[in-house]
Amino acid sequence: MIQQTIVEITLDSLLAKVRELKYEGWRLVQICCTKLPECLELQYSFDKDYVYQSFKIILKDTSTPVPSISAVYLSAFLYENEIHDLFDVKVENIAVDYKGEFYRTGIKHAFNQDEKPKETSHE
Amino acid sequence: MSKRTIIPFGPQHPVLPEPIHLDLVLEDEKVVEAIPSIGFIHRGLEKLVEKKDFQEYTYVAERICGICSFIHGLTYCMAVEELMKIEVPERAQYLRTIWSELSRIHSHLLWLGLTADGFGFESLFMESWKIREYILDIIEETTGGRVIFGSAKVGGVRRDIAPAKLEEIVKKLRVYQKKINDLGMVFLDDTTVKHRTQGVGILTTENAKALGAVGPMLRASGVAMDIRMMGYAAYGKIGFAPIVETEGDCYSRCKVRIRELAQSIDIIEKCVQQMKEGVIEAKVTGFPNGEFFARSEQPRGEVIYYAKANGTKFLQRLRVRTPTFANITPLLEILKGCQLADVPILVLTIDPCISCAER
Amino acid sequence: MSVLSKSPWIIHYDGSSCNGCDIEVLASLMPRYDVERFGVINTGNPKHADILLLTGSINEQNKPVVQNIYNQMPNPKVVIAVGICATSGGVFRECYNVLGGADKVVPVDVYAPSCPIRPEALIDAVVKALGILEKKKAASLAEEVKK
């Protein structure tokens, strides 16, 4: 019933792949990031006529810069700023770069921290 | 001339029930650019999966948004059920469909009211919400809650609706249908309303596709895309077509939602006709494992739930992409070139649900 | 309450609620529940308002906004924490970005917990707030007389 694929690709091939999909008329559905014990996973998801495919990129750590795809899909700028603010992933050349001011949270890059040091008084 | 001014819009603003902030760059009265800043409602709900187990989280998922609450809970359950390979009983699927559609009706009526308020038609606002109360009565009678249903659970639903009650609901909805039609006529035929909505905020088909619009926003721009067509819950057995308008302006978006109200009532009626007696929940054993993107159609458009689990009680990651988040970029597009006085109505036209968007 | 009491104007701000309470706040203004029969009007301007309805919990980003709205309201003023999130943080209490209930930043006079609030409970809270508003008014008047 539900068609979806998750394919792993390398970071270098990302931009070329995304341009190709744009040309074929795929819609950018979302970009998300997952923190795993040993690495970070980026997922770029696309949809066309209810067919869903997602491209997975493994990042060893947050020091590797990720190219922005907002030049191809403008709507990516929201997701990329979100990933930067919550996971500390460095995304380069975002169309509208908030430089860490997208989410003003109490704890910086909270999703990239294992256990949060929450000290607010819960008396 | 053409001196640029920046006007802050929100977070606390009379037309906004919820906080969103826009920096509007103006040339005289014309908006040339809009820059959103969000995060006023960011709570970090996605991270809460580390503290609430996958069963408990259903309640949190419902509270991501109080308007499309049931569909949030449902989509979360769909994601987890797929990870656990649970087959949901047929009756539960139909009940899920009925509640989803009831929540769509109440949400669209809510939106119609807010829009009427946005263009200053106070009595129309009151009228829409008056009809919405009838729908909330049905929801309360069947689930116990007015806004948060608490009926979805992993493996099925928590409550059944008796056959006699179902018949009664359909009869009631038929009566409300007439009231909704009268209401729709004001939105679609009244000259003053048309003056505010027709030709305002046009989103072309190309832009709608390129900027990733979803839901009524996309369908009003001539794209037949409705995740319900994928046939989750019982939608596959109902048989219906997405509602499409082609103009792409505020009027079209209004029309799509009004036509969807009638469609939802039809879907509920078909569900009631097709439903058979049966169990309403499957047994849940073990823990979720794997990764999956669940998709469903909310009143505002497509919602994505990404769940990743490693076979323990707690999910590793839950990611929610809500329709409002996807519709922000198209909103920025339609704001370009509009008049300052039209900004509130354009912001409302995407049916913003900020608490969804920021989680 | 004296025989002639003030018609309180309310301002509503959504802290970081899920919308559930917000739509119930609006629903209370609708024909079915109609808080306007108590003279209550929903205003968008804090300087016109007597009662602040706060829904949702407080987080880093909305803290200054809530404080600002509260400071702009003229005295005497009453704050109602609407729903469990504004009371204590509720189901979101454990979220990393949630500081807690509304009383973390502004003094709260009436707590109206539930998830989400029912219009009946909200009306009850507003009526209670009216009483407190009267008392505050009387107290400030007495102080002025003393001076």
Give a written overview of the molecule.
The complex is a heterotrimer of chains A (123), B (359) and C (147). Helices cover 19% and strands 29% of the residues of chain A. Chain A has 123 residues and is of the alpha/beta class. Chain A has a single domain (4-112), classed as Beta Polymerase, domain 2, CATH 3.30.460.80. In chain A, a hairpin with a 4-residue loop joins strand 2 and strand 3. The N and C termini of chain A lie far apart (50 Å). In chain A, 41% of the residues are buried. In chain B, 60% of the residues are buried. With 359 residues, chain B is an alpha+beta fold. The mean pLDDT of chain B is 85. In chain B, a hairpin with a 2-residue loop joins strand 4 (152-153) and strand 5 (156-157). In chain B, the strands form three sheets. Chain B has a three-stranded antiparallel β-sheet. Chain C has a single domain (9-146), classed as Rossmann fold (3-Layer(aba) Sandwich). In chain C, the strands form two sheets. Chain C has a five-stranded parallel β-sheet with strand order 2-1-3-5-7. A two-stranded antiparallel ribbon of chain C has the order 4-6. In chain C, strand 1, helix 1 and strand 2 (41-42) form a beta-alpha-beta unit. The interface between B and C is large, with 41 and 39 residues.
Q: Gyration radius of chain C, to the nearest Å?
A: 15 Å
Low-confidence parts of chain C lasting 5 or more residues at pLDDT below 50? none
**Strand order, sheet with most strands of chain C:** 2-1-3-5-7
Order of helices and strands of chain A: EHEEEEHE
CATH level-1 class of chain C: Alpha Beta
Shape of chain A: globular
Fold-level CATH name of chain A: Beta Polymerase, domain 2
**Structural class by secondary-structure content of chain A:** alpha/beta
Tally of individual helices of chain A = 2
The tally of structural domains of chain C comes to 1
Write the layout of secondary structure elements.
The complex is a heterotrimer of chains A (123), B (359) and C (147).
Chain A: E1 4-8, H1 14-24, E2 27-35, E3 40-48, E4 51-59, E5 66-67, H2 76-87, E6 91-92
Parallel strand pairs in A: 1-4, 5-6
Antiparallel strand pairs in A: 2-3, 3-4
Chain B: E1 4-9, E2 21-27, E3 30-37, H1 57-62, H2 69-84, H3 90-118, H4 122-143, E4 152-153, E5 156-157, H5 163-189, H6 191-197, H7 205-210, H8 216-219, H9 235-238, H10 250-274, E6 289-298, E7 301-310, E8 317-321, H11 323-335, H12 343-349, H13 354-358
Antiparallel strand pairs in B: 1-2, 2-3, 4-5, 6-7, 7-8
Helix pairs in contact in B: 2-3, 3-4, 3-10, 3-12, 4-5, 5-10
Chain C: E1 9-14, H1 20-28, E2 41-42, E3 51-55, E4 58-59, H2 63-72, E5 78-82, H3 83-88, E6 98-100, E7 110-112, H4 119-146
Parallel strand pairs in C: 1-2, 1-3, 3-5, 5-7
Antiparallel strand pairs in C: 4-6
Helix pairs in contact in C: 1-4
